[in-house]
Amino acid sequence: MITLRPFTTTDYAAWLPGALADLAREKVASGQWQADEAPQRAAADHAALLPDGLATAGHHFWALIDGAGQQVGMLWVAQQLRFGQPVAYVYNIQIDTAHQRQGHARSALLALQAECRHRGWQGVALHVFGHNAGARALYAGLGFEPTNLNLFQALHDGVPGEGGAKDNAHHAQAFTLAQAQADIRAGYLLGAPGAAVSGTVWLLSGWLGSQVALGQAVLALLVGGALIHPASVLLAKACGARGGHTPGNRLGRLAGEVTIWMLLGITMALALYTLQPQWFYPAMLAVIGGRYLSFQTLYGLRSYWMLGAALALVGVATLLLRAPPAVAALAGGALEWAFAVWLWRCAGACNGKAWTADADACARVAVGGAER
After folding, report:
1. Where does 259-317 show beta strands of DSSP type E?
2. SS3 92
3. How many angstroms separate the CA atoms of 346 and 355, rounded?
4. pLDDT value at position 200?
């Protein structure tokens, strides 16, 4: 939880040099300024915007204080009018390096919402640079919607042509993929709820196979499998995520196409069941493992490759070893649950910032302007 403490003059003096450097760097990264002029332009912009520094009318600076009473960053907003109504415009939200990837930016924006209600302000507005996919996912997850878009197309060698169009399409696709993956991670909490629900269904099926009968176990897996997506959406929402992706996210189509492939694979596994019942679970593990391989593209997490490969290998091993069918089901469920717990630990270490990826990506995620 974050509380807002008004800035002191000492706070402001310590913050200003870094803020100017950050502004200059962001403007250069977005292509708006040249590197050699950026420091001077940043200083001039700040002087024009804050002629009286901390005392400038209409501007509010707060230190961000965590639950332990420690300052973890700062927030700068100004009261503006939008559609004739007073709103808070966020000029800067900054999380100190040592406290990044702990969910403080999200908590700070929630604290700002409460402050706005207390002051009678009707909304929160902000600007985010287009290259900052992590910050955009954060704001989308909190319900921010774009009010205008600035678009840019680079021209090949200064003139439009076939080569330039191809290059631009490549770069646009790469950016769109990164943005879409960040949105999927935020909406579905890294996929942890889905893996947990799926693992539960497999464990239940394995238990039925060992204690009741194989037929009931297979039926439980099929019926439970049909409920995995709605149940995981509800679980994601219960954990604070949106339980969905932004409309227009093209990766949503990929998820649907992969599901069609999975249904075909399940049909083949059922056909094998009629021939050799003990083949059903190994075949299903291969099908589910193959589906998880595609999650690397959906979530941008290479760890899904490991999960998919592990499930497929378990299927092959239990088939070659002629293990009882329930063993394959129990092993698959245990793998999924172990993976779900690990994903939850990753998200938990970031305090729910689901756009942060697996262990290595957590250290590299481009939260940038959202938490820097």
Report:
1. none
2. strand
3. 10
4. 97
> Which pairing describes strands 59-65 and 71-82: parallel, antiparallel, or unpaired?
antiparallel
Rounded to an integer, the average pLDDT of 120-147 is 82
Query: Could you tell me the two tokens for 317?
Result: 């091993």
Q: Which residues contact 34 (CB under 8 A, 6 or more apart)?
A: 28
Question: For position 134, what pLDDT does the model report?
Answer: 73
Q: In what order do the strands lie in the sheet with 71-82?
A: 3-6, 59-65, 71-82, 85-95, 124-126
> Distance of CA 198 to CAs 37, 202, 316, 333, Å?
55, 6, 20, 7
For residue 240, what pLDDT is reported?
Answer: 77
**Nearest alpha-carbon partner for 292 in 232, 336, 235:** 336
Compute the distance between CA of residue 301 and CA of residue 172 in angstroms, rounded to an integer. Answer: 21
Paired with 95 in beta bridges are: 73
Check if the beta carbon of residue 28 is closer than 8 Å to that of residue 35.
yes
Rounded to whole angstroms, the Cα distance separating 75 from 109 reads 9
Match domain 3-182 to its CATH number in 3.10.20.30, 3.40.50.150, 3.40.50.2000, 3.40.630.30: 3.40.630.30
List, as one string, the DSSP characters of 53-90: GGG-TTEEEEEEE-TTS-EEEEEEEEEEEETTEEEEEE
For 41, the token pair is 């332009």
Read off the amino acid at residue 54.
L
Contacts of 5 (CB under 8 A, 6+ apart): 62, 63, 65, 71
* Domain residue limits, the chain: 3-182, 190-353
Q: Locate 50 and state its tokens.
A: 């804050």
Predicted local distance difference test score (pLDDT) of residue 226: 94
